[in-house]
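Help: read this over?
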Amino acid sequence: MPDVLPAVTVPELIKEMTRARRPESETRVFALWRHDADLLPKLVSRLNSLMNAIKKHPADVYDVQGLRDEGTDVFVKRPGQPPVCFQVKSDSELDDKDIIDKLRLQFTRTLENYRPAEYYIVVCADYTGRGNAAEGNASGKRPVTAHARRKEEKKRAQQRKNIVRRINELARIEGVTVIQPANALGMLRLSDAHLDALVTGRFSSADSVFADVQACLRPLPRIQRALVARLAWERVFGSDSGKVNLEDLTRDTSLEECRRSDSQVGYLPYADGEWRVIVERAEDVGGQSDGEEDAFEEVLIGDKDVSSQLVLRDGELVGSSFVSSDGEGDSIAAALDALDGVYVRVSDDWVELEPWPASPVLALILDGVARYGHERASDAVEYVLSVV
């Protein structure tokens, strides 16, 4: 491991942050979040958490400064290096008819004042139209019928997407990156544990523990990885026996949420008359297509029915995003059965970790506690999942 993490790594880590993604349906919250009161503090908080994680390693650390007025809202820098700058646009600011000209002017002022290494325009648009409709209702302007309300929501959502398409043109300028709303929300909602793992991943190639954890858990479905991590936490910090009540584990809400996000959304490229399945996590899938109106149909993949949304590009069918139906084989109990005898021991009433096969996971959890101060099982599970 190098004595000091190369300076270029911090901008690269920030770029990784901007790749986080939440479903577009969740961008409704942007209609409620204000620029100074909500968005900037959240961005500064996430960047500070990233820097705090970096301090746990032998690395150069940048300073985070916010609420600037020289063409940028927040910048991250270290002495002698060009900064990484952020310009944040709230949903309400997108109603400004001069938004494009203002963004160009702000970038010009940033160039004059900072000469940034990277310039991010963070677009916090409500892509649902529902948040805006709620505001209209508060002011007495909400449509009186459900049909009219849905029509207004669709109209406002399309208006937002049209504005963002215009803002996207600014990405043609060298050094400018436009962060889409789903990615902006994903970045602002990154947990400390996820950022810890993002930084730790920079050292994984030089540390056998991280490589061993990846070799141990990557072949497993996400819910099985989460179960191994949760039981590893209980082995170290739970009861003296390390045993967990089986009924409590199968009712754990965080594990259930993990199960539902596991292999439930995917993308099927279509070529030469054939479908090919690529399954991804829900928050990692785009699902937006340009141009043609989306169509819907039922398709069959293996033995599982899925509701499919066709993706068209220039009138040509290129693929389909899908959400699979739940099945008994995906349950927490079924995941425990698959792990039984390998990573866990399951009885009628309790379950416990097999320590030797999972020893790299135990080491990683202890690393998270010692290095980042993780205090909850959920932090440890998210840390392990993010590393893998």
Observations:
- Residues 260 and 326 are 8 Å apart (CA to CA).
